[in-house]
Design brief:
Blueprint: H1 7-16, E1 18-21, H2 27-43, H3 64-67, E2 73-77, E3 96-101, H4 103-106, H5 108-114, H6 117-125, E4 131-139, E5 149-152, H7 154-157, E6 166-171, E7 182-184, E8 195-199, E9 207-211, E10 225-227, E11 234-238, E12 243-245, E13 256-263, E14 283-284
Antiparallel strand pairs: 1-11, 2-3, 3-4, 4-13, 4-14, 5-12, 6-11, 6-13, 7-10, 7-12, 8-9
């Protein structure tokens, strides 16, 4: 089922830690995902405290909703969505940072987009022939308030032994310097994983970072290169690759769908923050585990 990526794209992935694949998602697919994401937000009713997502204060924001979202669909607000009185500054659908983290299994529109021969083939092309779909995110990068995503390695948050996590990031709108495109450090995936993000117990116990290597990550943005890509592009990201995105102060959103996969042969520790119950097992991209 390989043969989706070109030889040059496969070479780029192994050399730089990322590969840019244009024209991977057609206009109709993008429309379906974007309309479904807005519908999910419209239908979603927050309960209790408002859950804000920010990578800058990850330990403090690891509440029950975040830690249980590996097996459900939850909406996370932007840090700047609320005024000084705790009220939304604008409509709910313009205030959400992201939707996560199991819509690829629980929502038919996102599931149909995720489990395809093309995506399974792209994973196989880079050596992941047994890719399991672990986590998904729909990222809004809202106009004016889209938050920064600090420089990080995906392996920090979705660790396996050996490290196999790979990101498949789909631009549903043009990603530019103005609206907060991805930036990456070419070749830096050859360096060690710096830290891991661990849950301390059940959903109420919180989380902590465990430092593995004290070497600082590259400084953003000066040590990175921008990945400005048109809508429909897929970016494949090695789990050790440092990457970052800036705030969005423009008047245009930067919607994206992101899927993280791991190898079925790797060990996934039970201290990873994202856990799935036994009645929601991980599934292979190639759908070989289904009738």
């Amino acid at each position: 089922m390989a043969g989706v990526l070109s030889d040059e794209q496969i070479e780029q992935f192994h050399r730089d830690g990322f590969a840019v694949v244009t024209d991977m998602v057609g206009p109709e697919q993008r429309r379906q995902l974007m309309e479904r994401a807005v519908a999910i937000v419209d239908e979603w009713q927050p309960t209790g405290a408002q859950t804000v997502f920010t990578t800058q204060e990850q330990e403090r924001t690891s509440n029950r909703e975040f830690l249980s979202s590996g097996s459900n669909i939850w909406c996370f607000f932007e840090a700047e969505a609320f005024d000084e009185h705790g009220e939304l500054r604008q409509a709910k659908h313009l205030s959400i940072n992201k939707i996560g983290h199991a819509q690829h299994d629980l929502d038919p529109v996102f599931s149909a987009f995720t489990y395809t021969d093309d995506l399974a083939g792209a994973a196989a092309d880079i050596g992941m022939t047994d890719a399991l779909a672990l986590q998904s995110m729909y990222i809004f990068k809202q106009p004016g308030i889209g938050g920064e995503v600090g420089c990080h390695q995906d392996g920090t948050f979705l660790y396996t032994d050996p490290l196999t996590v790979t990101g498949f990031w789909f631009a549903l709108e043009d990603a530019t310097l103005d609206n907060g495109c991805l930036w990456a450090a070419p070749g830096a995936h050859r360096a060690p994983l710096r830290k891991v993000f661990k849950r301390l117990g059940d959903d109420d116990a919180g989380t902590e970072f465990d430092v593995l290597d004290p070497t600082p990550l590259p400084d953003a943005p000066q040590d990175l290169v921008p990945l400005e890509v048109p809508a429909g592009t897929m970016v494949v990201l090695d789990g050790r690759l440092p990457h970052w995105s800036d705030v969005n102060r423009s008047g245009r959103s930067r919607h994206a769908y992101s899927l993280h996969c791991i190898s079925a042969a790797a060990d996934y520790p039970d201290w990873n923050w994202l856990q799935r119950p036994s009645d929601l097992p991980l599934r292979r991209l190639d759908r070989s585990d289904r009738a």
